[in-house]
Each structure stands twice: as C-alpha cells, then as structure tokens.
Design goal:
Blueprint: H1 2-16, H2 36-52, H3 66-72, H4 77-87, H5 101-115, H6 135-143, H7 150-156, H8 159-163, E1 167-168, H9 170-182, E2 195-196, E3 206-207
Antiparallel strand pairs: 1-3, 2-3
Helix pairs in contact: 2-5, 3-4, 4-5, 5-6
C-alpha cells in the first residue's frame, strides 16, 4: 500500500503541477474475524460512511459503494451481490444460497437502515450526535422487512429507463415488440419481447431488454 500510494502521489503531483503529500493520513489496516457479525458491521460502516458524512441521505444514493452497485444492476452488480451474500452468511447451509440476492438484499438493507439511523447527543451516556437516516424512514424499511417498494427499486435501477427500451406489463411489451418486428425494427430471430425485470419484486412489470446482459446501442 505504501508503494501504491507513493506512485499515485507522484503521478498526481506531476499531472496537477503540485508538491507535497496527496493523501490525508496514513494507510490503516484492521484484522477482522471472518464471522457474520464482524464482517457485517464493517460492511455497514463502509456503506454508511457517505450518509454520516452528509454526502447523501440514503446509502443507495451514493453511486461509488458496493451496496449501490449491488442494487443498481450495473456490470459489477453480480460481484457485489456475491460479496454481500457471503457476508450475510447465506452460504453456510447451502452453497446455492449465496446467489439468492432477493433474500440477501432485504436482510442487509434492514440491517443497514437500523445501523444508519440518526442519533442525537446523549449527555447521560456521553454519546455524541450522529448523522443518519430519519427514524420514520428506518421504521418503514423495518416494517417491510427490508424489501424495497417498486418506486424505490426503479429509482435504483435507472438503467431500465434509459436501456430497457420498453417498460410495462408483459402484454404491453410484447405488443410493441411484435409491431416493431413486423415493421422490420426488431430482431426477426427473436421469439418474444417481454423479459421479467430482475433485482427486486417488480410485480407485473416487464422490460424489452434483459439487463443481465450488456446493452448494445
């Protein structure tokens, strides 16, 4: 890490025509037990940093963290989801459970909101005030067992708006697909158009494109 940071400092100083240190403090490392609670606490600490720093109001709104990557459905989502699944100890009883993102997502989101609730200073215990999410929002998430509402999930999966091409019920998506296929504007080799949206409980919502794959064009 020392060599890594020195190289970046040298590069940035040359690029920005500056001198001196580039990093705020020394590199720190912590040895963490490989248990669910220890890993979970550290993961929540990292994902809640932007909230406690006042950069965003909710952890999923910060685009440069593993949690938002996991729920956004971007290229690195599967790797982020696998990591959170392992942290939540999904794989202890069954190797297949680590890929069960719906279960992991709800459990981790509830834990994240409970840990990230705002706190006022307490003179009796000596605890200081802490930025975080409003109590009402935390309670709403806990009541739903961590599950996202469709509007919340869509907000996180903005790719469906810009890359999905068609969004609606299966019948609507299929109807538009068949019309476009008849007009020569859709893949003639494709048998159907509607694809179930992934990553949350979308109800009857379908998309024209399956965003597990890269979207071309």
């Amino acid at each position: 890490m020392k060599s890594f940071k020195q190289r970046i400092t040298s590069y940035m100083n040359k690029r920005l025509k500056r001198r001196g240190t580039f990093w705020e403090g020394r590199y720190k490392s912590v040895l963490i037990e490989g248990s669910e609670m220890a890993l979970l606490t550290v993961a929540a600490y990292i994902d809640l940093n932007p909230v406690r720093a006042g950069l965003v109001k909710r952890p999923e709104d910060y685009r440069w963290c593993g949690y938002s990557e996991a729920i956004s459905g971007t290229r690195g989502a599967q790797l982020a989801r696998k990591g959170l699944g392992q942290i939540m100890a999904e794989c202890l009883s069954d190797d297949e459970l680590r890929t069960d993102w719906r279960r992991t997502m709800n459990r981790y989101r509830q834990f994240l909101y409970e840990e990230g609730e705002a706190r006022e200073a307490n003179e009796i215990t000596g605890e200081g005030a802490r930025r975080g999410m409003e109590g009402q929002k935390v309670e709403a998430v806990v009541e739903r067992g961590g599950a996202m509402t469709i509007p919340e999930a869509l907000r996180c999966r903005v790719r469906y708006f810009c890359d999905g091409a068609i969004l609606g019920s299966a019948g609507f998506v299929e109807g538009v697909f068949l019309r476009e296929q008849a007009n020569g504007r859709a893949d003639p080799t494709r048998a159907s158009g509607a694809r179930r949206m992934r990553g949350a409980r979308w109800g009857e919502l379908h998309s024209y494109r399956d965003l597990r794959k890269d979207v071309v064009g």
